[in-house]
Amino acid sequence: MDLSGHTHHISRQFNMELDDIRTHLSEMGGMAQRQVNDAIQALIDADQQKAEQVVQADRTVNSMEVSIDEECLRILARRQPAASDLRLVIAVTKAITDLERIGDEASKIARQAMALNRDGMAPRGYVEVRHIGNHVSKMLQDALDAFARLDIEMALNVVQTDKTVDLEYSTAMREMVTFMIEDPRSITRVLNILWSLRALERIGDHARNLAQYVIYLVNGEDVRHFSEDQPDEDPAR
């Protein structure tokens, strides 16, 4: 979808400010996605150095959130945007909160990787981490692309994929718990995998939130609490 509807203003400076927050959001999203991918890889490969880098990168993501939030506040105070421009600023302020939390969850996975390196490799669970991790990473990429393109169809696909991730997470949790019951000696190490899977599931939730902001940005409709029990209501309307 054409972004020009958000950029045609008499003030060239206003145009630049709106472009800047979109660009900076994209940069923050890219950083958060690298954190997620590196954290997953650090866990699977037992890569201590990469895990430490993920934790350190979280500071950068936090700083980016503060900086973009300040940009948005300045636009609200100076420009008093309306209609689609106001929705853009609001959507960006919400999106950076989710991206910051994605960074936090990636750091949790990295810390679990470091713990496993100290305590010994987990007896199982890496297949589930890789599988769910691939789904979640794709969700995040698609959500960011949908935000950049204002692509509602892609955003809706992300929302639907989150349901699949939730089901896969529940299945993986049951399998891990069963394994711990069968082999109590593995409890500590398998718990590290469980916390990592939980963090991945939460990343999926945040990616879903990003996708829902796209729908809000384009249609002006908040679908975060849309109920599946209301089939006559179309969230993309």
From TrEMBL:
Pfam families in UniProt: PhoU
Keywords: Cytoplasm, Phosphate transport, Transport
GO BP term, pick one: negative regulation of phosphate metabolic process
Any one annotated GO CC term: cytoplasm
Domain PhoU: 25-112, 129-214
Domain of life, source organism: Bacteria
Subcellular location: Cytoplasm
UniProt xrefs under InterPro entries: PhoU, PhoU-like_sf, PhoU_dom
Gene3D superfamilies membership: Phosphate transport system protein phou homolog 2, domain 2 (1.20.58.220)
Main localisation: cytoplasm
Quaternary structure, from the entry: Homodimer.
Family: Belongs to the PhoU family.
PANTHER family on file: PHOSPHATE-SPECIFIC TRANSPORT SYSTEM ACCESSORY PROTEIN PHOU
Biological function: Plays a role in the regulation of phosphate uptake.
Name this protein carries in UniProt: Phosphate-specific transport system accessory protein PhoU
Lineage summary: Bacteria, Pseudomonadati, Pseudomonadota, Gammaproteobacteria, Cellvibrionales
